[in-house]
Amino acid sequence: MSAAIYSLADVLRDPRIWRGRAAQEAVVATHATGHALLDAVLPGGGWPKSALSEVLIDADGIGELSLVLPTVAALTARERGDAVLVAPPYVPNPAALARRGVTLARLHIVDATPVDALWAAEQCLRSGACGIVLCWPQRANDRALRRLQVACETGSCVGIAFRPATAAANPSPAAVRVHLALRGDTVTASVLKCRGANPPGRPVVLDRRVAH
Amino acid sequence: MLWACILLPHLALDEIRRQRENYDEAAPFALVTGPAQRLQIFDANAAGQRAGVLPGQALAAARAIAGDFAHANYNADTEESLRRLLAAWAYGYSSMVSLREPGTLLVEIGASLTLFGPWPTFERRLRDDLSQLGISHHIVVATTPLAACALAHAHDGIAAISDAACRRAVAQLPLRALTPLGDVTVDALSSMGMTTVGQILALPRAPLARRFGPAVVDYLDRLGGIAPDPVELYQPPDRFAAHMEFDHEIETSTALLFPLRRLLGDLGAFLLGRDGGVLQFELVMEHDGRAATRLVVGMQEPQRDPASLFDIAKLRLQASTVAAPVRTLRVVANDLPPFVPASHDLFDARAGAGGSINWAQLAGRLRARLGESNLYSLEPTADPRPERSWRRVPRIDQRAELVVSPEPRPTWLFERPIPFHGTPRRILAGPERIESGWWDDGDVRFDFYVIETSVGQIAWAFRPAGATDGPWLLRGLFA
Questions:
Q1: At what angle do helices B253-273 and B76-90 cross, to 10 degrees?
Q2: Per-residue pLDDT tens digits for B233-264
Q3: How far apart (Å, rounded) are the C-alpha atoms in residues B90 and B126?
Q4: B303 - beta bridge partners?
Q5: What span, in angstroms and rounded, lies between the C-alpha atoms of B337 and B271?
Q6: Within a 10 A sphere around the Cβ of B27, how many other Cβ atoms?
Q7: For residues A109, A113, A118 and A120, what is the CA-based torsion angle, rounded to 10 degrees?
Q8: How far is Cα B394 from Cα B377, in angstroms, rounded to an integer?
Q9: φ, ψ of residue B237 in degrees (nearest 5)
Q10: How far is CA B326 from CA B289, B294, B436, B466, in A?
Q11: Burial class (CB in 10 A: 0-12, 13-18, 19+), B242
Q12: Are strands B412-420 and A204-206 parallel, antiparallel or unpaired?
């Protein structure tokens, strides 16, 4: 045997060695989600800046807005950080959103039929004029989602698509997929997929507050 | 002062070329004028002139020479309105633009040279713009307006920027360059043995005035810069209206796109000239035998870039149905506020991204396709009643003070209450009595609770005031 002494770092740099976790931190530009535990498990520490993220929910209103509002609040505080909600299922209450720090002047809502909603979401994502686009695609097949994903890259915009949890079984071009579920009294977020790293095994418990 | 004369030798023909999508440069084409029995050639394109079709010929004679060729009637009104549009364009380069001399634009450039660079650069800009608008032209610079016009008829691209150079250039002009004097005078002068303008300018004025009248002397003095020559200046109008008529009825909206692009290109040139933008314009489509279709195209902020105007108008056109085939397309813009260019941050990474647009352009695009009312912002109101605690507004002023109630309010609101079947898992907060609206027919008296539904959602629910049991109605979700 050779008596040469190898440092561990040198050995690990060998391309033939595959490590379970991504060896180097993926260089993904992100926006913090505002949830410390979730940021810790997402590669780059937040929502990818120029990619589509998917939030899969068991039922409407279990905390999907609380999940994204910190990001919306942070982005709408800036120039060119307009947020667009494309065809939300209910009325986003301006009073509650303002209380969470969202700048209402930079929050825009689009009402549209399912087909127009996909068009509108793509336009907003692609334009480069928006900081974040939230959409609730109704008839989103793989092709439609891929279009949205490409539009996110073109416009370097955070795109978040909310879909029912039943869609979790189907593959998706989204860079990040988070499944929101109710477990007893708590809401958990499990990362099903995140580009640039292996998804963490354990779901993250989200803070659930009403009165603020 | 330095006057640039932009001579527009084939303006009517240019107008036809701009209007027709399938105009073929290689096919002979002529404009005719005069009574139907004695049609005369007014102007012919290059291919026509090569084939022997010359202005002034009778149509029948031209047919005999060149065979059958396409022709259209000359329309002096459309020619003149195109000239006015070009004046609006030229107004962007100089505040002194005149339409006094027929078939030309007179532009004072002396004061604009500092801004638009030395004359060759400035000239290239003018020529580029005109070529883009599809206008054939001659450009000549001289120190008096009349000299510039006389030179433009004979030359293209010369610049006589000193009085001496200007006098020399004019003196060499042949007699027939003095068209404003009239053929009779010019013929009389040439029968006197004169051949160039210089010879006439050298004649003593008094006998000339006795023989030809004071108007001729006055003209020659103004031409040579001896007498002052004030020109009436063009003032751009406060509204824009342009139209295109079609030979045949247009039945598809795709076929309307070409004329639409042309008209909006003209609108863009007009807006650039008066340094304005457009906030709203109207597309009027006229049909045979029924009322015109009017489409209003609105913008979030004043715009003037022809490409984005076309983009928005195209979406508006595609989103609407036009009831009948279209005969005439008209663009009318009355609302022309000052244009404030969007400022970009030098270090903004996004500004450099290809194809990126600003929010105003995006909003215009969305409104054009989805309808004015389907893009909005939400504003909280001071009213405690859930259905009136918010309202849709086209936009919110960023400096506006917003009222926000201190009570817990759900992030999702239902437009209408939804009945809740089953019993809540628990009641988290409440009751909060909301009692209001006895004065405006929106009387409500309810107790609101924060409950956890059987699924686990946290909901905002209510019951009639004072009720301790009975059905719940949901008003929102704490999502």
A1: 50
A2: 888 888 888 888 887 888 888 888 888 998 99
A3: 8
A4: B278
A5: 10
A6: 12
A7: -40
A8: 6
A9: -70, 165
A10: 11, 12, 55, 65
A11: buried
A12: unpaired
Q: Please count the residue pairs, one from chain A and one from chain B, whose beta carbons lie less than 8 angstroms apart.
A: 171
pTM score above 0.90 = no
Q: How confident is the model over B178-207, as pLDDT tens digits?
A: 888 888 888 888 898 888 888 888 888 888
Q: What is the 3-state secondary structure (H, E, C) of chain B?
A: CCEEEEECCCHHHHHHHHHCCCCCCCCCEEEEECCHHHCEEEEECHHHHHCCCCCCCEHHHHHHHHCCCEEEECCHHHHHHHHHHHHHHHCCCCCCEECCCCCEEEEECHHHHHHHCCHHHHHHHHHHHHHHHCCCCEEEEECCHHHHHHHHHHCCCCECCCHHHHHHHHHCCEHHHCHHHCHHHHHHHHHCCCCEHHHHHCCCHHHHHHHHCHHHHHHHHHHHCCCCCCCCCCCCCCCEEEEEEEEEEECCHHHHHHHHHHHHHHHHHHHHHCCECEEEEEEEEEECCEEEEEEEEEEEEEECCHHHHHHHHHHHHHHCCCCCCEEEEEEEEEECCECCCCCCCCCCCHHHCCCCCCHHHHHHHHHHHHCHHHEEEEEECCCCCHHHCEEEECCCCCCCCCCCCCCCCCCEEEEEEEEECCCCCEEEEEEEEEEECCCCCCCEEEEEEEEECCCCCEEEEEEECCCCCCCEEEEEECC
Q: Which of B422, B436, B438 is nearest to B474 (CA)?
A: B422
Q: ipTM above 0.90? A: no
CB B382 within 8 Å of CB A126: no
CA distance B446 to B266: 60
Q: Chain A window 86-105: which residues touch B at a Cβ cutoff of 8 Å?
A: 89-100, 103-105
Smallest Cα–Cα separation from B106: which of B135, B137, B148? B148
CB–CB of B400 and A103 under 8 A?
no
Mutate to test the interface with B, among A100, A108, A183, A188 (most CBs of B within 10 A): A108
**What DSSP character marks residue A200?**
P
Dihedrals phi, psi of A161, to nearest 5 degrees: -110, 130
Q: How many angstroms from the chain centroid is the CA of residue A51? A: 8
CA distances from A76 to A45, A67, B232 (A): 19, 16, 53
Cβ atoms of A174 and A50 closer than 8 Å: no
Going by pLDDT thresholds of 50, 70 and 90, the confidence category of residue A195 is confident
Q: Which of residues 314-353 of B touch A (CB under 8 A)?
A: 345, 348-350, 353
> Coil, helix or strand for A64?
helix
Taking residue B70's Cβ as centre, other Cβ atoms within 10 Å add up to 14
Residue A193 has pLDDT above 80, yes or no: yes
Q: How far is B296 from chain A (nearest CA, A)?
A: 20
> How far is it, in rounded angstroms, from Cα A30 to Cα A37?
15
Amino acid at B5: C
Contact status, residue B32 vs residue B16, Cβ threshold 8 Å: no
